[in-house]
Amino acid sequence: MVISNEAHARQFIEAIPHAKELGIWFETIGEGTVEMHMDYDERFIGDPKTKVIHGGAVFALLDTCCGAAVISHPEQRGLTATIDLRVDYMRPATPWQTIRAKATCYNMTRSVAFVRALALDNDDDRPVAAATGAFVAGN
Amino acid sequence: MMKSRREPVQVVKERRDEALHTLVRSIPYIQFLGIVFDRRGDQLTAIMSYDEKLIGNPEIPALHGGVIAAFLEVSGVIELSWSSLCKEIEASSKPTQYTLIPAHIELPKTIDFTVDYLRSGLPRDAYARARITRSGRRYASVFVEAWQNDRDRIFAQATGHFLMPKPLNVEKSTPS
Q1: Which listed residue, of B41, B45, B98, B116, carries a Cα 20 to 30 Å from A133's Cα?
Q2: Chain B neighbours among A 46-85 (CB < 8 Å)?
Q3: Which is the CATH superfamily of the domain at B8-163?
């Protein structure tokens, strides 16, 4: 039986305890592109004064989404691991809104996969955060 | 018999601990990850106790990269916020009557955060310490490192830039 990378990515991410804990789900998976969503949850509040969720929760969503983008890439064999990831926080995410992450694995070498991603709330024109990173390729 | 009058140094210590606990308790996400802080003098160590929900790769098993990043970011934010709060409290005219009100706390805002994953995070407790490398009126730079069973084997490190809040008006939150 051949399991496509797309199926593999979905299956794997859904087995991640922390992704489940954050309530992360797949919206779409393509070849090297993934969109994932995370609902607002009061347990993720990082600033009690403004009710804005913590940057760490956004980071976790972006990291998960970037990793899935690598796994779903047609040239990737097997799983991956983050080498480094940088997140720029452009503005606070609006409380009570779902955060959407969109990641693309835009370049793949024999040993490194390069990924970028955006995190958005309901406002498509003003991203909440952007990520760039390098992941382990191959296996 | 115990003397009822305590040493001033003890009072300062209690104020520092009180500020730290109020700060940490007020942030739900820190409770969600189960992070606590240990204070020795002016040095803070963040401790994240192992829990199955922190796992990212169940096959190895390894801590989730996002959890590691969040742990480092929390350490950085608390270090920055607590050290500036302590300075403000001690500089106020009545530090002894000072009470920190959670609703008055304005936290530093993360501008960017970069994490290097040096080794996979083992399914066990993790520790982190942050160092403020530059602290200006508006921007601050922080370096954070994390380890597990061996202090010399750092499993993740991070650098971040933060936008600092305007100094809290300590006198305002002091009950008269």
Answers
A1: B45
A2: 46-49, 53-57, 59-64, 67, 79, 81-85
A3: Hotdog Thioesterase (3.10.129.10)
Instruction: Provide the CATH number for the domain around residue A75.
Output: 3.10.129.10
**Quick check: ipTM above 0.85?**
yes
Q: Across residues B55-81, what is the average pLDDT?
A: 95
| Cβ contacts of B7 within 8 Å, gap of 6 or more | none
Least confident of A117-121, B11-15, B19-23, B153-157: B11-15
Nearest CA in chain A to B69: A56
Whether the bond between A48 and the residue before it is cis, its omega within 30 degrees of 0, is no
Q: Has residue B1 got a pLDDT over 90?
A: no
A44 and B28 within 8 Å at the Cβ level: the answer is yes
For A43-77, how does the pLDDT look when each residue is reduced to its tens digit (9 = 90+)? 999 999 899 999 999 999 999 999 999 999 999 98
Closest CA to A14 of A68, A52, A62, A53: A68
**pLDDT for residue B96:** 66
What per-residue confidence (pLDDT) applies to B6? 54
Contact B53 A17 (CB under 8 A): yes
Give the three-class secondary structure for B166.
coil
User: How many CB atoms lie under 10 A from the CB of residue A20?
Assistant: 14
B31, B55, B109 ranked by CB distance to A18: nearest:
B55
Nearest to A81 among B102, B105, B117 (CB): B117
